[in-house]
Each structure stands twice: as structure tokens, then as C-alpha cells.
Amino acid sequence: MIPIKAILFDVYGTLLDPTSIQSTASEMMADAPQFVALWRAKQLEYSWLLSLMGRYESFWEITDRALTYTCERFMVMLSEGQREDLLNSWYTVAPYPGVAEGLELLTERGLRLGALSNGNPEMLDKGLRNSGIFDKLEVVLSVEEAGIFKPSPEVYKLGLSWLNTENPAEIGFVSSNSWDAIGAAGFGFRVCWVNRTGFPLDKIGPIPAAEVNNFGEVIDFFA
């Protein structure tokens, strides 16, 4: 088996926990968990729809549009300040337990680490810095460079350019999003799927090399 030289991590749902936004939303509404869940679902849905239509908007713009939809769906009227607070909560998404320590362990093993995310550069820069893990990554790659969203192969190619290789098997990939793990596996990355929900894998593509339940098991897989 070809040795892995580097690992790329998805950000939202893998390194950073979008459900932490509920703490901000709960100050504005009673059904914050359901509100944030739909907001996140629409955020992803819009990225896929735009990609299919051959269009690109930044993830921040998509997040804004998805918030508008979610407010209309829940019949929530936000003040300008509340809306700004909710959007800015994406800059302070909390990291999952064990992420910072795990990244340090992988670096000590001589692996190069990076992030590959749908997020636009400003969202990723602020979010990862505020979470305290920005400096643990060698590179933060945004789909903005490709002009299309994951799981397009054009996005995963950014990883090859970063590592200066033509062989995707030299790169490990970690995501908690089933569709992302499948897309990366189809591209040829050595994928570790962090199945935090316990749901089955989507039946649409290649099976990832490993399925784990938490970030600690990610470290064991790449030992």
C-alpha cells in the first residue's frame, strides 16, 4: 500500500461543530435545534444545486440565502442585529472534542495536514483561528479556487496541487459527511469517514477505507 504523505480534513461537521450555532439561535427562538438543522441542510443543498446549474456563489452568500429560507419556513422575524449575530456565529463554530490534540499527534508522526472545505476563505480563516486550530494546519484550501463545490472531483484536485502529486492515494481524507467521504473515495483519496450520527453510508458510490465514530479513532486509523 502506498504510504500516506498528507491528510486533508473537511471543516464543517468534521473539525468544527455546526450545532454549536444553536447557542446563538436559542437566544432568539424556542426551536433552535430544528432551525439550525434546516439552515445547515439548505446550506448544503444550495451548494449542490448551484454546482449542477454550473453556477458558483461563495459559501457565505449561500449561508445567507439559506438563512432567509429557514426564517421564512419557521416564520421567524429577525432584527437586523439578530440576523448579523446568527451569520457571524459561523465565525465562532466550536471545534469537536479531541480535534486540536489529534492534529498535534498526527503532525508529530510526520504527516502534513490541511483542510479542504466548501467554506470561502474568510469564513475558514476566522472560524479556524477562533477555534484555535488554524496553526495546526499547513494549508486551508477553499472550493473558491475551483469555482465549484464538493463533491466535484475538481475540488479534490486542489489537494493534488498542494501536495504536488498526481497520485491521490498519497493523501488521506477525513470527513463526517457521508457524501463528501464517498466523493473523496471515488477520487482516490484514502478516506476515513467519521460517522458521528450512526446513520448508514449513502448508497451512491465507493465505500471509504474506514468508518469511525470519533476523532480519536481517526488518529488510530492513520497510526
Write a brief structural summary.
This protein is α/β, with parallel strands linked by helices and 223 residues long.
Layout: helices, strands, pairs:
Elements (H helix, E strand, L loop, with lengths): L5 E4 L6 E2 L4 H4 L6 H21 L6 H16 L5 H9 L5 E2 L3 H10 L3 E6 L3 H11 L7 E4 L10 H11 L7 E5 L2 H10 L2 E5 L15 E3 L2 H7 L2
Parallel strand pairs: 1-4, 1-6, 4-5, 6-7, 7-8
Antiparallel strand pairs: 2-3
How would you describe the overall organization of this protein?
With 223 residues, the protein is an alpha/beta fold. It has helices spanning 22-25, 32-52, 59-74, 80-88, 99-108, 121-131, 153-163, 178-187, 215-221, and strands at residues 6-9, 16-17, 94-95, 112-117, 139-142, 171-175, 190-194, 210-212. A six-stranded parallel sheet has the order 5-4-1-6-7-8, sandwiched between helices. β6 (171-175), α8 and β7 form a beta-alpha-beta unit. α2 (32-52) crosses α3 and α5 packs parallel to α9. The longest helix is centred in the N-terminal third of the chain and has 21 residues, at 32-52.
List keywords for this structure.
single chain; about 220 residues; alpha/beta; 6-stranded parallel sheet; 9 helices; about 45% helix
N-to-C SSE string, H for helix and E for strand: EEHHHHEHEHEHEHEEH
Proportion in helices: 40-55%
**Could you list the spans in which at least 5 consecutive residues all have pLDDT below 50?**
none
How are strands sequenced across the largest beta sheet?
A: 5-4-1-6-7-8
Q: What is the mean pLDDT?
A: 97
The count of strands amounts to 8
**Number of discrete helical segments:** 9
Shape label: globular
